[in-house]
Every structure is written in structure tokens, then in C-alpha cells.
Design a protein that fits this description.
Helix content is 43%, strand content 18%. With 322 residues, the chain is of the alpha/beta class. Strand 6, helix 5 and strand 7 form a beta-alpha-beta unit.
Length: 322
């Protein structure tokens, strides 16, 4: 089954878009997927202040939409002979209109250049963060220095040693499916990282007359539990994509101890990854780091492209009609 069938590219006029639109076209061609390119222009309020003589706010809105469409036509012009690309200009707040477009048209992937990539070393702007939090489909944010081909893709997963095989979180499966598909199509190396910790180490030390020995035993026990779960995930991954594809891909698995908000960005730098595939929201009842503030802390530190995935069943708080 194809993972990507209907792609939405969101224009970001504040940055150079050449590499990003090329990426969207390439992904669409590789997956024989439909591609729609949109821009979102702000709504002009009827009560807006001074306007050019004889013009109304509706006329100004129409002019802005027309200008945006011309910009999109220029953006896709180099690719019109290769691919049929639909264009649309929406009016409103960017992240809201993008999510509503997804709800209307069932896009299964967004590709968008990241906002303000050089602002205080943070890659993602406000609309981007809103999409990462609330978009119901995967969001692929590309950086300004996007390379034509990735050489290394990092899949960040969260394994729970207390969950049996049958209940392995599907979010990990989605992350591995997407990252392996891209790695194979781009001839890129694939690394899989899981961050673990021993959260009660200090408590264990305070409960015994031999703190050092008790601490070492507890930490080793936690490491072993996570290692078994991580190994199980690797075996499930092999079964999922098949032995031939797995051996061709030869993914490297890394289990690192520490705080994910620190360890993930460090690992990205160490491995020189071009793309990170990670989750941004975990399902209720699944312990782990793929929730809220921690995921956002990771995203704000990354200086590479990111493909963020939601778990099956995620429902966006944005509604089609409000």
C-alpha cells in the first residue's frame, strides 16, 4: 500500500522556496501522488484604514489573491511539463486554512518551508508550530539549506518496556514506515534512536545501605528492559518491511540515556542527519516523551528538516466550519 497519495505544498514566501518545491515534486513523482500547491493570504477586514482612492476592501482582497496566484504559477513553472500540479489561494490565518484544506481534501502529507530559519537559531515559526501541534497528517518542514538528496535520516522512536508485543504503539510503526521508505528511495542511511532513562535512581539510592550497588543494579535493570523492547521493535520492523529490504537498508540502532530534549538534538548533530522523522503527540496511556512541551523543545533546537507524525486516531482541534 502506498504511504503517500495526496500531497499539499504550502508556500512560504518569506524564504527561498526552490529546494522545497523541488522536494515536493520529487516526492509526488516517486509516489505517483497528486500534488496541490497553495498560498494563504491574510483576510482584509472591511474596517481596514486608508485604502487607495476609489478602492474597497473586497477589491484589495481580490488583488492580493491574484498576486499570490501569480507567485504560485511562477514557483511551479519549471515543473509543469513533468507533473500536473493544482493551485489554490486561500484567505485567512495560515495554519487554520491549511488544516481545513486537509479536512476537506484528505491530504496525507504536508510539505512546507520552515518559517524564519535564522531567528535566534530556531527553525520553526508560529504557524509551523501550530501545524506540528494540530495538523492531522504528517508535516514535513524543510530548512532553507535543503539538500537535493538526503544522506542520513534519523527516526526517533519511543519504546515502552511495559507494553507487550501485540500492543506495540502504531506511532513507531508509522515513523519507521515513512523513514525507511524515504531512505530506500533516496539511497540514504537510516538511523533509529530511542532515548531512555532511570528516573528513580536517586530514590533507590536513598532506600538502601549500599547506594552505589543498588543504583547500578537499578540502572542496569532499566537499561535491559528498554534494550529488550528496542530489540523487539527492530525485529518487528524487519518483519514489517521484509528481510530483503531490511538487509538492503541496514538500519543502525542507537539507544541513548538522558533527557530526550537534550539527547535527540545532540544525536542529530553527531550523526549529521539531514532529516528527522519523529512523533509530536502520544496517545493517552502510552508513557514516553512524544508529548507536548518536550517534543516542541526538541523541534526548536533542530537545524535540519523534520517530518513530524501523529498517531492514528489523532483528531485535530481545528474544525472545518467555525
Amino acid at each position: 500500500m502506498k504511504l503517500i497519495n495526496n500531497i499539499l505544498y504550502v508556500s512560504e514566501s518569506s524564504v527561498a522556496q526552490g529546494p522545497s518545491i523541488a522536494r515536493a515534486v520529487s516526492v509526488a513523482e516517486n509516489n505517483q501522488a497528486d500534488l496541490t500547491v497553495i498560498d494563504v493570504t491574510p483576510a482584509i477586514m472591511a474596517s481596514i484604514g486608508m485604502l487607495p482612492a476609489g478602492h474597497t476592501s473586497d477589491e484589495l482582497q481580490t488583488a492580493m489573491v491574484s498576486e499570490s496566484r501569480k507567485g504560485l504559477e511562477t514557483l511551479i513553472e519549471p515543473y509543469t511539463q513533468r507533473l500536473s500540479i493544482r493551485l489554490d489561494v486561500l484567505v485567512g490565518k495560515t495554519y487554520l486554512e491549511v488544516i481545513r484544506a486537509i479536512l476537506r481534501n484528505n491530504y496525507d502529507l504536508i510539505i512546507k518551508p520552515a518559517e524564519n530559519p535564522n531567528f535566534i537559531a530556531r527553525l520553526f515559526g508560529s504557524d509551523d508550530m501550530q501545524l506540528l501541534r494540530n495538523c492531522p497528517c504528517p508535516v514535513w518542514l524543510t530548512r532553507l539549506e535543503e539538500q537535493s538528496d538526503y544522506t542520513r535520516i534519523l527516526a526517533a522512536v519511543d519504546v515502552n518496556p511495559d507494553v507487550p508485543d501485540a500492543a506495540e504503539p502504531t506511532l513507531n510503526q508509522q515513523i519507521l514506515e515513512l523513514s525507511s521508505s524515504l531512505a530506500i528511495s533516496k539511497f540514504a542511511a537510516l538511523d533509529v534512536v530511542h532515548v531512555w532513562d532511570a528516573p528513580f535512581e536517586m530514590k533507590v539510592q536513598s532506600w538502601t545501605d549500599n547506594p552505589r550497588e543498588a543504583s547500578m543494579a537499578y540502572v542496569e535493570s532499566e537499561r535491559s528492559r528498554h534494550q529488550r523492547a528496542f530489540s523487539r521493535l527492530g525485529q518487528n520492523f524487519r518483519d514489517q518491511i521484509g528481510t530483503e529490504a531490511y538487509d538492503h537498508l541496514s538500519p543502525q540502532f542507537h539507544m541513548r540515556r538522558g533527557a530526550p530534549s537534550t539527547v535527540i538534538p545532540q544525536t542529530v548533530k553527531e550523526l549529521r542527519a539531514n532529516l528527522v522523522v519523529m512523533g509530536t503527540v502520544a496517545r493517552t496511556g502510552i508513557a514516553g516523551w512524544l508529548i507536548g512541551n518536550t517534543a516542541e523543545a526538541i523541534l526548536e533546537q533542530l537545524q535540519c528538516s523534520v517530518l513530524a507524525v501523529k498517531p492514528h486516531g489523532f483528531v485535530s482541534p481545528v474544525r472545518l466550519f467555525e
